[in-house]
Amino acid sequence: MYFHIHLVVIFFCSQIVPTTIAKSYSSHSITERLHNVALKHSAGLASDLRVALGGVLLTRRQQPTNSGLQNRAVYCVSQQSSKNNGGAQVPLSGGGNGTTTTIRPSGTSGSGGTATSTTGGSTPSSTSSWTLAEAHQGSSFFDGWDFFTGSDPTHGDAIFINQSTANSLNLAQINGQGNAVMAVETTPQVAGTRQSVRITTQSQFNGGLFIMDAVHMPTGCATWPAFWTNGPNWPTNGEIDIIEGVNNYTNNQATIHTNPGCSLASSSSSALAITGTVVGGTDCSAADSGNQGCGMRSPANNSFGTGFNDIGGGVYAMQWDDSGIAVFFFPRGSVPSDINAGSPDPSGWGTPMARWPAASCNPFQFFKQHSVIFDITLCGDWAGSVWSSSGIPGQEQSCAQLTGFSTCDAFAQANGASFSEAYWEVSSVKIYQQSS
Ligand SMILES: *[C@@H]1O[C@H](CO)[C@@H](O)[C@H](O)[C@H]1NC(C)=O
Ligand SMILES: *[C@@H]1O[C@H](CO)[C@@H](O)[C@H](O)[C@H]1NC(C)=O
Ligand SMILES: *[C@@H]1O[C@H](CO)[C@@H](O)[C@H](O)[C@H]1NC(C)=O
Ligand SMILES: *[C@@H]1O[C@H](CO)[C@@H](O)[C@H](O)[C@H]1NC(C)=O
């Protein structure tokens, strides 16, 4: 079985793969809307969607509208994946002609990449089996990302703008600290949507270690930010939500969404060896679970929102390898030195906040060709639907109570100043591939 899977992966990796931009839609047919609804979710939302989505998810097609077909760098985990031969992971396409900061793993024969390095080549220590493949930081942070444009597939009050517009409005910029800032428009009043930013890596990955360091994340009533990955043809190639939550939440929720066949063997934190709590079901299939997926909530109230920002943020790491998928959170001040040194070694990091073990969810069958995504939306399918809810960590009072507005939309349109904290400030995104 595993051998078969590797053959599939090799097929994907043996060419420059034309792919579509995920989650890019223009029209609003019923099936499309249902699919779009399903693209982002929450446990609280699932019951609303379950009936509507039944039977529709797996038959819907994607309709790329923004950019059509593109050639993308695809990183591979081959049959040699984990234990030897540093040549196992090869970026086979240059992707964006130098727009990505790509380092071809040493020892590979030059099969097709126009890979470049702008990262200064930190030398991995002998204990890390991970090699830096792509880094986004400093003045070139936005190189290698596409700006998704258009309305929000999850029905939020955001309109996503292109890079030049975002730059000119200071909604995407590099600040004086050299960090990338992505923000929501704070015009006092708007009639409908607020301009916002959603970016997707041009490179795609089959496995990897994804490490994101941020000093600030969007927070406040109506906000719904996420840092996540997904593959084409959702949910066939899976979605991994690394950081996600809404409104005033202070505890992160990490979630996977898949095709049928991926599950958790248990909902027990100790059995799963996680610090988090399973908040969804144990069937991770989008179709089977009303798109609830398998969500896990961090016990740390500094892992999201105000709590995260108050401590100067921290580092999230998502590990996707033969053992499965895991998400780690390290508050500022507790970031492992091997991460800071550029030679990350997850084996020394302790218990992750979330983990989906390979034994019940093959990580290379249900997840393929993932791009990394940041976005900020407002209201919509999650933040809007829980506007009047309370009892989630950080949300002791509902946003309806806190703001005096009975709907999320009305609040978002009338209170631009309340989005002064609705921004990502990201120091770096570093993507590693297994090397030896
Ligand atoms: C690659 O980018 C460089 C610098 O922008 C440009 O001069 C060159 O023509 C590009 N090459 C191709 C093949 O597009
Ligand atoms: C960016 O969006 C603006 C506003 O819609 C448009 O005028 C401009 O042509 C776009 N720029 C690019 C490079 O697409
Ligand atoms: C909760 O949200 C409201 C409205 O955005 C904001 O004024 C308040 O500061 C938030 N509270 C916390 C603790 O983040
Ligand atoms: C986190 O929890 C601690 C202990 O209950 C509390 O003192 C602190 O105010 C909380 N922080 C946030 C941001 O909610």
Automatic annotation (TrEMBL):
**Entry GO MF terms:** hydrolase activity, hydrolyzing O-glycosyl compounds
**Which residues lie in Low complexity bias regions?**
99-131
Do the record's keywords include Signal? yes
Signal sequence region = 1-22
Domain GH16: from-to ranges: 116-391
CDD domains, alphabetically? GH16_fungal_Lam16A_glucanase (cd02181)
Q: Which UniProt keywords apply?
A: Glycosidase, Hydrolase, Signal
Please, which domain of life does this record's source organism belong to? Eukaryota
Which GO BP terms, alphabetically? Answer: glucan catabolic process
Identify the InterPro entries for this entry.
Beta-glucanase-like, ConA-like_dom_sf, Glycosyl_Hydrlase_16
Coiled-coil blocks: none
Region Disordered: start-end pairs: 82-131
Kindly name one Pfam family recorded for this protein: GH16_XgeA
Say which family it is in: Belongs to the glycosyl hydrolase 16 family.
Q: What is this protein called?
A: Glycoside hydrolase family 16 protein
Species of the source: Piloderma croceum (strain F 1598)
User: Which lineage?
Assistant: Eukaryota, Fungi, Dikarya, Basidiomycota, Agaricomycotina
